[in-house]
Amino acid sequence: MSQSCSIHKYIRAPRGCCQKSLCLQHSSEHNALLVGQLNSFTDEINALDDRLRTLNTQNTTSNHHQKRQQWRDNCHKEIDCLLEKKCQDLDQVINENMELHRKELNRIHLKITDLTNAQEATRQDIDSLNATIHPLKSEMNKIE
């Protein structure tokens, strides 16, 4: 069954393409247009390929590497500051604790001196001093 060419109203052997029925002559012209478009695509792809080959990614990646290195350095600085603060806090707690122990030792020493000078120590005084000194020894062992 013959169909008429979509471009001219005459009957030839049509070829179906792009939803149109074209005669052999117009079909060849249509194919030539399509091949021309393919050549244009090939040129674009070749140009993109050339750009990709000559693309200097070192500048782009170098910038990103620098940003990540700066981020890393900033994180290290924050960690160092936090560590320094925690060390200072620990030193302060230890110093305060040791100062309390010194005061307690001085208080006990004064009491012993007073009892020795008065020559009036009782069993209750000795037991009280022993009960006070024993926990201090345990604390010193923990500290050491």
Report what the structure shows.
With 144 residues, this protein is mainly alpha-helical. It contains three helices and four strands; from the N terminus they run ββββααα. It has helices spanning 24-54, 57-118, 123-143, and strands at 3-4, 11-12, 15-17, 20-22. Strands 1-2 form a two-stranded antiparallel sheet. A hairpin with a 6-residue loop joins strand 1 and strand 2 (11-12). Helix 2 runs antiparallel to helix 3 (123-143). Mean pLDDT is 83; it is low at 9-16.
Spell out the key features of this protein.
two-stranded antiparallel ribbon, rod-shaped, two-stranded antiparallel sheet, 3 helices, mainly alpha
Query: Strand content of the residues, in percent?
Result: 5-15%
Low-confidence stretches: 9-16
- Largest beta sheet: what is the strand line-up? 1-2
- The secondary-structure element order is EEEEHHH
Structural class: mainly alpha
Q: Considering DSSP H and I runs of 4 or more, what fraction of the residues is helical?
A: over 70%
Can you count the helices?
Answer: 3
Mean pLDDT: 83
Major beta-sheet overview? 2 strands, antiparallel
Beta-strand segment tally: 4
Name the overall outline: rod-shaped
End-to-end gap: 109 Å
Radius of gyration (Å): 48 Å
Secondary-structure blueprint of this entry?
Blueprint: E1 3-4, E2 11-12, E3 15-17, E4 20-22, H1 24-54, H2 57-118, H3 123-143
Antiparallel strand pairs: 1-2, 3-4
Helix pairs in contact: 2-3
